[in-house]
Amino acid sequence: MKKYDVIAFDLDGTLTDPENGLIEGFMYAFKKMGVTGYGDRESLRRFIGPSLYVVWQEEFGFNEKTVIDAIEKFREYYNVYGWWDNKVYEGIENLLASLKAEGKTLVLATSKPEDTAIKIMKLFGLDKYFDFLGGAAGDNRDHKWQVLDYSLNAVGADRSKAILIGDRMYDAEGAKVCGIDSIGVSWGHGSREELESSGFTLLADTPREVKDILL
Fold first, then answer.
1. 132 alpha carbon, distance to own chain's centre
2. What is the DSSP code (8-state) at residue 183?
3. H or E element: which one contains 176?
4. Cβ proximity of 11 and 170 under 8 Å
5. What is the CA radius of gyration of the chain?
6. How far is it, in rounded angstroms, from Cα 160 to Cα 7?
7. β-strand 181-185 against 202-204: which pairing, if any?
8. Has 139 been annotated as catalytic?
9. Does the pLDDT value for residue 1 go beyond 80?
10. Could you say which of 5, 10, 17, 139 is catalytic?
């Protein structure tokens, strides 16, 4: 099995389950913007993981100003109530501790705004396992590959020995653009069909399986 020195992690749907806080924020934003036809709560899970700036333009045909306004409405709710309405998946802290004990370099690469991502990581005490916490920062670092590239560069990663762990097709696509391997995890918000068709290098159903792959 190939050995990896640098392990990059997605946040939402990979380390923590943010579903309730995010969906409440989406519904708040759509109500404020007068958006209809977005489906039920279950269907709103499709917006967990990717950049809202990208997917809301694609989904609703928003122009740049409208999508920025919609995201600002979402943040009115999420930045006060939604970000802490979250939980760490079972087995994640053991996985992180085990990787760190083996001397692995851990980085976060999330499409969530960096300041919010850091707050969440500190809330759950996960930040202590990481060498770098990278997140989105507007137009110049919004797509997954841009955030991943930023996080890998921050630790001087040898990309032949780096891998990304994530739960959505955007993670697989970002890893491919950055020239690294990837593991798709099934406990998050991507369907099995999405994981299998997205081009992940490997798939895992539990944090223990990820640990077995990496160690």
1. 15
2. E
3. helix 169-178
4. no
5. 16
6. 12
7. parallel
8. no
9. no
10. 10
Q: Tokens for 176?
A: 């491919």
User: What is the C-alpha separation between 37 and 14, in angstroms, rounded?
Assistant: 28
User: Which tens digits make up the pLDDT trace of 180-215?
Assistant: 999 999 999 889 999 999 999 999 999 999 999 999
Looking at every residue in the chain, the average pLDDT score rounds to: 94
- CA dist 111 and 136 (Å) reads 5
Q: Are strands 162-166 and 202-204 parallel, antiparallel or unpaired?
A: unpaired
Closest CA to 133 of 150, 145, 156: 150
- Whether the model clears a pTM of 0.85, i.e. scores above it, the answer is yes
Helix 144-154 to helix 169-178 angle, to the nearest 10 degrees? 50
Paired tokens of 44? 């709103």
168 phi and psi angles, rounded to 5 deg: -130, 165
Burial (Cβ within 10 Å: 0-12, 13-18, ≥19) of residue 36 = exposed
Share of the chain above pLDDT 90, in %: 82
